[in-house]
């Protein structure tokens, strides 16, 4: 074997040039990474909060509907605005009073005085007077087919305060407090329990206000 035949052919080695980032580019890259990390953390936090709230509400509704709660005292107090449907769905004692209450023809006649008015009801889901009067008000409005301008149901804490300032605005002392407004002016109010009937007391105050107008 000759020397030339025994030699091994060595292929040339090509090195791929490595791009070197400048210091400014590295700084900008780190900033982008940090922004992306903060954004991902923000989105994850908000999603977790939304899921927690949804699960809490769903669990409360399920436990209420299935009767898992031994008593209504075990259902968490609601604080804030709540619809009539939500109130009657979540709190059995409110629903029971609504079902059991049978208003008289006179009460259905009196409740017509609330037509076209704003009604703000401050109450407690923990309050025994609220469990009686609020469902009665809802049933009177329903059976009387009363078209109010707006009905606001607002549940306060056991300390009779709230984060939205409703208790302070309406100078809440006892629950429930049913305030009837005609525009920006309050024309009727029933606190805790009526002297006669809820519909009768409200109607009497509204009619008295009409008579006092010039």
**What is the number of E strands?**
5
H/E element order: HHEHHHEHEHEEH
Coarse shape:
elongated
Percent helix range: 40-55%
Gyration radius (Cα, Å) is: 33 Å
The biggest beta sheet is recorded as: 5 strands, mixed
Unreliable segments of 5+ consecutive residues: 1-5
Separation of the first and last Cα atoms: 132 Å
CATH class of the largest domain, named: Alpha Beta
The CATH H-level superfamily of the largest domain is Glutaredoxin
Q: Which fold name fills CATH's third level, the topology of the largest domain?
A: Glutaredoxin
Structural class: alpha+beta
Which range does the strand content fall in? 5-15%
- Mean pLDDT across all amino acids: 85
Provide the spatial order of strands within the biggest beta sheet: 1-3-2-4-5
Under the CATH scheme, which architecture of the largest domain would be assigned?
Answer: 3-Layer(aba) Sandwich
């Amino acid at each position: 074997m000759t020397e030339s035949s025994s030699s091994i052919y060595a292929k040339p080695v090509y090195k791929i040039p490595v791009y070197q980032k400048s210091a400014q580019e590295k700084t900008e890259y780190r900033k982008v990474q940090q922004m992306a990390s903060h954004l991902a953390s923000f989105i994850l936090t908000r999603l977790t909060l939304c899921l927690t709230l949804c699960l809490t509400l769903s669990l409360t509704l399920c436990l209420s509907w299935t009767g898992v709660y031994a008593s209504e005292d075990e259902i968490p107090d609601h604080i804030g605005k709540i619809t009539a449907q939500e109130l009657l769905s979540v709190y059995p004692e409110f629903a029971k009073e609504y079902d059991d209450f049978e208003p008289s023809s006179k009460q259905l006649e009196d409740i017509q005085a609330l037509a076209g008015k704003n009604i703000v009801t401050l109450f407690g889901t923990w309050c025994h007077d609220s469990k009686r009067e609020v469902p009665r008000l809802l049933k009177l409005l329903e059976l009387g087919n009363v078209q109010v301008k707006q009905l606001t149901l607002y549940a306060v804490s056991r300390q009779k305060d709230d984060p939205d300032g409703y208790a302070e605005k309406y100078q809440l002392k006892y629950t429930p407090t049913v305030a009837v407004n005609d525009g920006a002016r309050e024309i009727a109010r029933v606190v805790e329990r009526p002297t006669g009937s809820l519909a009768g007391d409200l109607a009497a105050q509204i009619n008295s206000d009409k008579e006092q107008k010039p």
